[in-house]
Design goal:
Distance between the termini: 28 Å
Strand order of the largest sheet: 1-2
Largest sheet: 2 strands, antiparallel
Helix content: over 70%
Shape: globular
Number of domains: 2
Strand content: under 5%
Number of helices: 16
Order of helices and strands: HHHEEHHHHHHHHHHHHH
Length: 457
């Protein structure tokens, strides 16, 4: 047996022990809450199956930790004994990451630039804590990057080193988004007037962006099916699941993700020479939507449950952080904040500390404005240089892979990258927008393994 095979065997053995112990702890927590002796073995079986899957596909442990984005106890995900589900996934992911590091694999495709950028951004946030007047929020941001974003970028560099693993990662991401969509459809029946759709007690905006990512990946896999000679299956997949994503996105009530989805889908279509057909489909859907509202009172009442005019509320008359007017107000206020400390900013988390209506967790809903105000022109220059480099790498990647059999996966990845880049311009803070760096890291990985394979060939 070779040294590499031996290391892999030991890694699998340690991994099996880790997952077994984690499963035992999870089942014990569930059993404490279960009131029925029938539910206990079913819960144990479900967790055992889940842990077996995660043991064979470690990227799933990363997603289960990364997507909720919680690094401490979360009341909405509480199990028992003061432990929440995200803490279990956090511990399991940490062990998986340590095992991956212990194997010392070759890393020709490691996203060094993205890791350097996210680690550098984290360092700037930590420095910004020294002069912030909102330490709690600033520490939350810095710790989220130190314990969540940076480790996940490292894991992707260690694990995803070829197209098959990239495709599998995107499949898991799409599967989680699909599950969230189905939960949203189930919750539609209990949605109250004026409320926005979400799941697990999370924010509607983050939920909507997960759905948008899932729909783009659904389109990607549909194109893959079509190109492999399964056109009927591709059509059924898109027609069966696509409307569910659109409906739940609408009732999440965020226009930003919907507009970003439209532009990203058109970008994806243009890469495959289907722009005109996609524009026609968008037009048909829009006309059908308007006709349905005019022809059906019940449909119109359902649509009115979420006010699509929410983005245009007057922020002086109503508090609405989703409104167009509030964005203008945020940018005016941001200009004042930036002028106070233009070089180093006002400190991590301190953007909203001088607003008339002060909230502990307030932000300008624009990633670049947020970093410019809190980390100054230094922070803005860092993210600007990285995004410029990333755009160049993305363009080269698309050109290099155009004739490759993996071109569809690359276009789907780039469409998701564009989707998140557009979203960070209009909503969320630096933590909410963490998914941008995951797709950025995957894009760098894809660019490196395509270049590595070309060099070897």
């Amino acid at each position: 047996m070779s040294t590499m095979s031996t290391a892999r065997s030991w890694g699998n053995a340690w991994g099996a022990c880790v997952w077994w112990l984690g499963g035992a702890a999870a089942v014990a927590a569930l059993s404490w809450r279960a009131s029925s002796t029938i539910l206990l073995p079913l819960a144990g079986l479900a967790f055992a199956i889940t842990l077996l899957v995660v043991a064979n596909y470690p990227e799933l442990s990363m997603l289960l930790y990364f997507i909720p984005g919680k690094i401490g106890f979360e009341e909405r995900l509480e199990l028992h004994w003061g432990i929440s589900a995200n803490q279990i996934f956090q511990a399991l992911f940490a062990l998986v990451l340590l095992l991956a590091l212990a194997r010392r694999p070759q890393r020709p495709c490691f996203p060094r630039i993205t890791l350097g950028f996210t680690a550098g951004l984290c360092a700037l946030m930590l420095v910004g804590l020294a002069y912030t007047d909102n330490v709690a929020y600033g520490a939350f941001k810095a710790l989220s990057y130190a314990l969540l974003v940076v480790p996940c970028v490292v894991f992707l560099g260690l694990h995803v080193d070829r197209p098959l693993l990239l495709r599998r990662f995107l499949l898991f991401f799409a599967g989680i988004a699909l599950g969230m969509m189905l939960l949203g459809l189930r919750n539609l029946g209990t949605l109250e007037q004026g409320h926005r759709l979400a799941v697990f007690g999370g924010g509607a905006n983050v939920y909507s962006r997960m759905l948008g990512s899932g729909l783009l990946l659904l389109l990607m896999f549909a194109v893959m099916l079509r190109r492999s000679g399964h056109a009927a299956s591709a059509w059924v997949l898109a027609m069966l699941l696509g409307p569910g994503f659109l409906v739940t996105m609408y009732f999440a009530g965020s226009k930003g993700p919907m507009l970003a989805l439209l532009l990203s889908a058109l970008f994806f279509a243009a890469l495959h020479g289907r722009l005109r057909r996609t524009l026609f489909i968008v037009l048909v859907v829009g006309v059908g939507f308007v006709a349905a509202r005019q022809g059906s009172r019940s449909f119109d009442d359902a649509v009115e449950m979420v006010s699509v005019s929410r983005l245009f509320l007057n922020p002086k008359a109503e508090i609405s952080y989703g409104s167009y007017g509030s964005r203008v107000d945020f940018y005016k206020y941001s200009a004042e904040r930036l002028s106070e400390q233009p070089l180093v900013g006002v400190g991590t988390g301190a953007w909203g500390s001088r607003r008339t209506l002060f909230e502990d967790y307030s932000y300008p809903h624009n990633l670049f404005v947020e970093l410019a105000c809190e980390l100054g022109l230094v922070g803005l220059a860092v993210i600007g240089a990285y995004c410029g480099w990333l755009a160049l790498q993305t363009r080269r990647l698309l050109q290099r892979m155009r004739q490759s059999e993996h071109y569809v996966v690359i276009t789907g990845l780039c469409a998701c990258l564009l989707f998140w880049f557009l979203n960070v311009q209009v909503s969320g803070d630096v933590v909410d927008n963490r998914n941008l760096w995951i797709f950025a890291a995957l894009t760098e990985v894809a660019a490196r393994f395509s270049g590595h394979q070309a060099a070897e060939g």
